[in-house]
Amino acid sequence: MGRVGAEQRAAAEARLEALRVTGGLTTAHVRLAATGLHVAERTVWRWLGPDTAGTQVRPGARLTGCRRPTGRRTPTFGATSPPCTGPGPR
Q1: Are 85 and 69 in contact (CB under 8 A)?
Q2: What is the DSSP string of 9-53?
Q3: Most CB within 10 Å of its CB: which of 7, 16, 54, 83?
Q4: Distance from C-alpha of 52 to C-alpha of 21, rounded to nearest angstrom
């Protein structure tokens, strides 16, 4: 694993982002780019960042909880968490 030149990285990012916009981006594309640039697949995914098309994701977003009618704060993740019925975090 090594450092990637700015031009190489920009070219890979542009091509992969174009594939993402058209809905054609696959893990195979990312693996191929990572192999060709001698970096980890995870590194390429980090370069691309989250797919924010149609979502309200902000950089650095953290998991939050909600307040239950009992006043107890519970996390809002996982299949075992009941839906939040109270106001949001305070």
Answers
A1: yes
A2: HHHHHHHHHHHHHHT---HHHHHHHHHHHTS-HHHHHHHH----T
A3: 16
A4: 11
